[in-house]
Amino acid sequence: MSMRSFLEQMEAKGEVLHVKDEVSTNFEVPFIMKKFDNKGLILLFEKVKNYETKVAANVCGTRKRICTALNIDPNGLYSSLIEAWRSPQKPKTVEDGAVKEVVGKPNLSKIPVLTHFEKDAGPYITSAVIYAKSVDGSVGNVSVHRLQVLDDKHFAIRLVPRHLYKLWQMAKESGKDLDVSISIGVHPAVVLAASSPVPFGVNEFDVANALMDNGLTLVECERVDACAPAEAELILEGRISVTKEVIEGPFVDITGTYDIARKQPVVEVVGVMHREDYVYQALLPSGAEHRLLMGLPHEVLIWESVSKVVPKVNAVNLSLGGSGWLHAIISIEKQLEGDGKNALLAAFAAHPSLKHAVVVDSNIDVYDVSDVEWAIATRFQASEDLIIIENVRGSTLDSSADQETGLTTKMGVDATRPLTKPKGKFERAKVPVSKRAEEVARKLLGV
Ligand code: MN
What we know:
By secondary structure, the protein is an alpha+beta fold. It is built from twelve helices and 23 strands.
């Protein structure tokens, strides 16, 4: 299983739009990606100015497509992800794979890396999954990081203080640069696993393999001590320096605003492997795909946490308007007065970056923002149903949070129907339906 086979599957379903006109990596490809951001289609740029390589974009752009890639019914998505997180399975390592069709010396200027936004510091790789292991070999980790191209052989890498940062710190103590594989164009399950909040010590390749029903194979790199997906489109072999740092950024992150420039480590690229006709994978920062990949695994955390305090959680949506990160809409089956507020507290505990959360009843569609607004309009009283928590840690990506301390104010809105007031007042009116009316309507709508 690979990105290649998934693209073929999507091609057959008519979900791939071929862009045949010549466009440049410098703003032109990103401009078209942004124009098509909410259309749900995969874009395949066939003629990229100055490059031989095709560029695929928006591969994991919709919930539905992610479910298709994982071969999961959308209703079982959260429980399937949790199962894979809890029961990772080691993938097979094979001698050879499609990615080793060409093994050679690296030259980053030959790869169609995009320059996305007006004030970005330069071209950035945004879809790479990066593998590294601990100095003693006991811990393997896979995560997604942005890479700023500095020259033909060097990147600056943004290391948020999480797992790869920890491995880099451990390498620093031993005084040896950290070997990494940088894989581009991998199966959606690998990207989703790499975006998942599993604990340090769990290898995300094992999680991906569990999601792929044992369909992931790995190869060992040629020039560094690291493994990578055998069916990837492109693998760069690199070393994260433990001594050299440069200014990285500014660069647009998930909220669509510029993340600040800061000192970050340099990666030296020492080798490259790719398919003969490799396809480069692009991912638009702050686009629907970015928000979905970052948000979805955190919806699972919220779902799990809220499930512990109320009888049933119907759905969770880290909404696109909230950048897939800062706003959650949660629908629950309310049993007792107070369930709504308990659900809010559980959601904030599960996802520390969460800023605003709305809890609604199970008959409200969490993906329909108008429906949610209707619930707030008819079921919510600010003097009774609002929670405000001041001076708590939130997301540094929120421009309105205190940029020095990272402190922010969180707001929870309990828009569930109050059980203490007469039920009839809150009933959503229905028009009685007959078979004939239904048929006529269906014919008119052409469905
Ligand atoms: Mn990890």
